[in-house]
Amino acid sequence: MKIVHVASEIFPYAKTGGLADAAGSLAATLADLGHEVSVFLPGYRVAVEHPLAGQAEHRLKLRVEMGDVFMSGDVRSFSPRKNLTIYFVCREEFFDRRHLYGTPERDYEDNHHRFIFFCKGVVETLRLLELGADIVHGHDWQCGLLPLLLRHAEQRHGATLAIKTVFTVHNLAFQGIFPMRSFYRTNLPDELMGIDGVEFYGQMNMMKAGLLFADRLTTVSPRYAVEIQTPEFGCGLDGVVLSRAGEITGLLNGIDARIWNPAVDGLIPEHYNVGDLAGKTRCRADLLKRHGLDPEFRGPIFGMVCRLTEQKGIDLVLANADFFKAADVRLVLLGTGERRFETAVRELAKACPSRVAVSTRQDESMSHLIEAGSDFFLMPSRFEPCGLNQMYSLVYGTLPLVGRVGGLADTVTDLDEYPAAGTGLMFAPTAEGVRDGLSRALKLFDQPARLAAAQARGMRKNFSWTQAARAYERLYEEAI
Ligand code: ADP
Ligand code: GLC
Fold this sequence. Notes:
By secondary structure, the chain is an alpha/beta fold. It folds into 2 domains: 2-254 and 465-479, Glycogen Phosphorylase B (Rossmann fold); 278-459, Rossmann fold (3-Layer(aba) Sandwich). It has 18 helices and 18 strands. The chain has helices at 18-32, 45-48, 92-95, 111-128, 146-157, 206-213, 222-227, 238-243, 278-290, 314-318, 321-326, 339-351, 364-373, 389-395, 406-411, 431-445, 448-459, 465-479; strands at residues 2-6, 36-42, 57-66, 69-81, 84-90, 133-139, 162-169, 177-179, 199-200, 203-205, 216-219, 248-250, 301-308, 330-337, 356-359, 376-379, 399-403, 425-427. Strands 3-4-5-2-1-6-7-11-12 form a 9-stranded mixed β-sheet, sandwiched between helices. Helix 1 crosses helix 18. The model has no long low-confidence stretch (mean pLDDT 97). Bound molecules: adenosine-5'-diphosphate and alpha-D-glucopyranose (GLC). The site of alpha-D-glucopyranose (GLC) has 14 residues, from helix 1. Alpha-D-glucopyranose binds next to helix 1.
C-alpha cells in the first residue's frame, strides 16, 4: 500500500512526547513490512537541523491559499531507509522557531495558522507530486482538518488524493480550539462552521473535525477507545466520538525494541535479561550514585519519568509526600512540565535529600537508567491513552504501579487480583489509591519470590511494533 502519515512530531526529528515515538515507529515498521510510506512533519528548526536530515533535498515550492492571501513555503524530503520518505513542510515564519508548540510559558498564538498551513501544505504536496496515496493517516488535533482539506481539494481539482483517511487520537485532552474567526483561513465551505462541522461552544475545534470527517478513527489502546465515549474521559467530545462508535478502533502502541531493551540498551551501564539480572543490580547502584544517594541502599526504589501535569497524577504523588518522608524507600523522579509541579517536586527533594532525588530536565539517558535501576515504576495517571513507560518498565523488570485507566489497564495485570498472571499493581488514580499502591508495593518487596515471578512475567512480554503495525495494516485494508 501507499501510506502517508502526517504528524506534528516524529522521532527522531522532533519530539515532545510519546506521539513522536508512536507515529515514528509505526511509519518505520510499515515501511519494513514492505509498504511505500511517506511521512510529513513541519519543518521545525530542530527537524531541519537534525543530523539525519542533512541529506534533505528541496522538492517543491508551495503556494498555499490561507483565506484571502497566498503564503509561500517549500517542501524538502529525504529517505532515511528503504520504503520510507520523510517530507518537511517548511515556512520560516511558522516553523523556524526554538520550540514546537510554544515557549514554556505559553502556546504560540498563531498555532492555528501554523497547522492549517501545514495540513494544506501536505495536501498540495500530495497533489503536485501525484503521490497516489491509498491511505492518508493523520495524528492528533494538529492534523484534525486534514480529511476535510483533502476532500475539499479533491473536489476543487477533480483529482483523487487518497482512497481513505484515518485519524488517530493520541490524547483527547488537547483539541486545538481557536476563535471561529480563523476558520476563513481554511477556505472550507461556511456550512462547516456549524454544529455538524467544526463548531464547539462557538469556537473552531480541530480535533472535532478529525473525529467527524476521517473515514476511520483509532486510539492508541482498546480501553481508551471506549473511555472517550463517556463524559468522564470524553473532554466534551464524548458525544462526537459516540456518534462514530462503529468506526473507532483501539490499537495498542508498541515499543521500539532496538532502543528499549535491557539486553542491548546503549544508555545503561550494564546489560541484563530475564535469565540473568546481575546487570540490573549494577544499574541500581549507578542510579543511586548518580543522584548522590547511598549506592549500598537495599530497600525499594521507586522511579518516575513523565511530563509534570495533572494527567500523569504528579499531584497525587505529592499528596503522599509523608510516605516518602517516613518510609525507608528511595524515589527518583525525572520530569519537566508545569512550573508549580516542578517547584513542588524540587521542594520534596529538598525536604528529604537522602531519600528523594529529582531532576527537572529532559534527559533521554537518565530515563533509561531510571527504568533499569528502579524496583517499581510509578505511573498514577488520571487518564492514559496508551502510555509507553509502563511497557518499558515491564520489559526492564521494574514493576509498574499504575492508575487503572486506558492503556495502563490494557498492558498491566494486577498481581493481587491475578496472582498467577500479575505483572504490576493497579489502583484508582486518587491520592488514596496511590497510597494503597505504595503500601502494597512495600509488602511485595518483602516477598522476593513473588516479586521475582511477576518481574519475569513482565520481562517476557512482547510489545513489538511489528504486531501493532500488522493491526494497522488490517485496518487500512478493511477501510479500502
Ligand atoms: P506522553 O506522551 O503522554 O507524555 P508517553 O508515556 O506516551 O506519555 O511517552 C512519554 C515519553 O517521553 C516516554 O518515552 C518518556 O520516557 C519520555 N519522557 C518524559 N519525560 C521525560 C524527561 N524529562 N526526559 C526524558 N524523557 C522523558
Ligand atoms: C499521547 C498519550 C500517551 C500515548 C502517546 C503515544 O502522548 O498521552 O498515553 O502513549 O500519545 O500514542
